[in-house]
Amino acid sequence: AARGCGGIWRQARQRGAGWPGPGPGPFPRRQRAVAYNARGGAVPAGKSGLAPWVPVVGLEIHAQISSNSKLFSGSQVQFAAPPNSLVSFFDASLPGTLPVLNRRCVEAAVMTGLALNCSINKKSLFDRKHYFYADLPAGYQITQQRVPIAVNGSLSYSLCIDKKMSQMVTKTVRIKQIQLEQDSGKSLHDDTRSQTLVDLNRAGVGLMEVVMEPDMCCGEEAAAAVRELQLILQTLGSSQAVMAEGQLRVDANVSVHLPGEPYGVRTEVKNINSIRFLAKAVDYEIQRQIEELENGGTILNETRAFDSKLGCTVPMRDKEGKQDYRFMPEPNLPPLILYDAKSLPANMNHQQVINIDWIHERLPDLPSVKREKLVEQYGILPEHSFTLLNEDGLAEFFESVVKQTQMKPKKVIGWILNDLLSYLKQHSLTVKESPVSSFLLADLLNLLEKKEISSTAAKQVLAELWKGEGKTPLEIVKEQKLELLQDQKELEQICQAVIDGQENE
Amino acid sequence: QKVSVEVLDHLEHLALVDFRDSEGVERLQKAIQFADQLHEVNTEGVEPMDSVLEDRCLYLREDDVTEGNCTKELLENAREKVEEYFVAPPGNIPLPKLDERETFLQGS
């Protein structure tokens, strides 16, 4: 498998159990090696004279807006409610109903656009995208195809280049645009009775579609970019971005080509349910396309679904050729006009005005800024602050411990990342669920700092604290007699006793 | 200029209309001719209009929950339902290809 784009991409010719179809496969038994530099540019493989493929990965991400009500109606936004209970007449597309835009959704999109360094379009338009599906009662989705709310931004993310040396490298992916659009309802396929059950609770929920340019070259980059976007959205509060609840959905566009040649035909990969699977799906698809092309085959411009059980992508049924969405302007919605400090109209109702500058001034510190501040303030390494922010609540935990202990932050971080975090991971717990509070850990570290116990003893105490039996570190130290002896005379007596014991043998 | 069979077939697939016979196609032709009169107007340098409402102010609603909770009413419209779900066919059933379906378009 690829080890980041600075590594070697090997063509594995062994066919495992997951390969569709019987037999070892039609490929020749040679191994092929491909090398890329960190920018995803291919480097000739040298003596072997083998083909250096350049993979190209772009992403379309749909993030559900965190709001009380839907994008164009007043029904509630909530995960897991009785079917069709959060549906208004508009959401069900009953005749005579009209869309009414939710202010909060616009603010969420502006915040996200600003955080991603986009230009906010002061005038954006709504369009209808037509297609037939049971969970789209209107037969069209209201989206922003012609002029979206934000364009031309960028997202910077970090990758661990060499796990041993903990070297991190920063990459950037361009954001083509961000648009507001409606979510569709949910279809439950009942194959036994040959029918589909439709729940419209999700129909009409606000989405921000973030389109990333094809600047990535492998699964690891795609995963890192999405992870950073997820953290940004969660920091802004514009989306809770929990993939497991469908609040963040990613479709990957993958193609490969030879250096110097134009981009190859791309496939779209859907049904990716976690960041881990995103990396797998992208890498699998790149490999599949390379093998197909090296075998003299062609790549179809198709939509494929990722099968997480088999770890491969399969063609999706139901996509009969290219879709013609017949985009048209949404006749029931005038253009969305946004203002800034300069263009603010004097005599308009405040509630009807969205001021981009006002929102900009109130943006919270983004993850990249928070990481820098942690490094500056506490003298920890960039990789450390990266891990702190990667675990929900860990940065706050760390800062809380630092406040309560005399131990230097550079030492505290070791206990947080090596000991606490590994315990949490072993037991699949979140920081919030930790049986060891920041108070208890600080208490323990203070004992260590004051040299009342050794660091080995401290680890023992931590193991005991982990049981969550309510004992304090001091109590455990006393119980297990882990105190470091400070008395010179007592130490001399013990040493003498040991020496005496040896002489008697 | 007549509308080609390919376009008519494409429209039948997309919009699920059924032109049914030459009269249906003729009606479409006439509608297109009628709309084509717009080309007689010189629109050079004029921004296309989206709708007669495009100068209006887009109203922004506060993010409050004011609707929903009418499952029973909504399901009254459903021909079939299963435990408060709407029932639909298993998937989109695409229109058969031109040479595989009975349509007068074939003869054109």
From TrEMBL, chain A:
InterPro entries assigned: Asn/Gln-tRNA_amidoTrfase_suB/E (IPR017959), Asn/Gln-tRNA_Trfase_suB/E_cat (IPR006075), Asn/Gln_amidotransferase (IPR018027), Asn/Gln_tRNA_amidoTrase-B-like (IPR003789), GatB (IPR004413), Gln_synth/guanido_kin_cat_dom (IPR014746)
SMART domains hit by this protein: GatB_Yqey
Record protein name field: GATB amidotransferase
GO molecular function terms noted in the UniProt entry: ATP binding; glutaminyl-tRNA synthase (glutamine-hydrolyzing) activity; transferase activity
Domain called Asn/Gln amidotransferase: residue spans: 396-505
One BP term from GO: mitochondrial translation
An example Gene Ontology CC term for this record: glutamyl-tRNA(Gln) amidotransferase complex
Family: Belongs to the GatB/GatE family. GatB subfamily.
This protein's UniProt keywords: ATP-binding, Ligase, Nucleotide-binding, Protein biosynthesis, Transferase
Catalytic activity entry: L-glutamyl-tRNA(Gln) + L-glutamine + ATP + H2O = L-glutaminyl-tRNA(Gln) + L-glutamate + ADP + phosphate + H(+)
UniProtKB/TrEMBL annotation, chain B:
Superkingdom of this protein's organism: Eukaryota
Database matches in Pfam families: GatC
One BP annotation, GO: regulation of translational fidelity
Single GO cellular component term: glutamyl-tRNA(Gln) amidotransferase complex
Molecular function, one GO term: transferase activity
Keyword entries, A-Z: Transferase
Family annotation (InterPro entries): Asp/Glu-ADT_sf_sub_c, GatC
Xref: PANTHER family: GLUTAMYL-TRNA(GLN) AMIDOTRANSFERASE SUBUNIT C, MITOCHONDRIAL
Protein name as it appears in the record: GATC amidotransferase
Species for this entry: Irena cyanogastra
Gene name of the encoded protein: Gatc
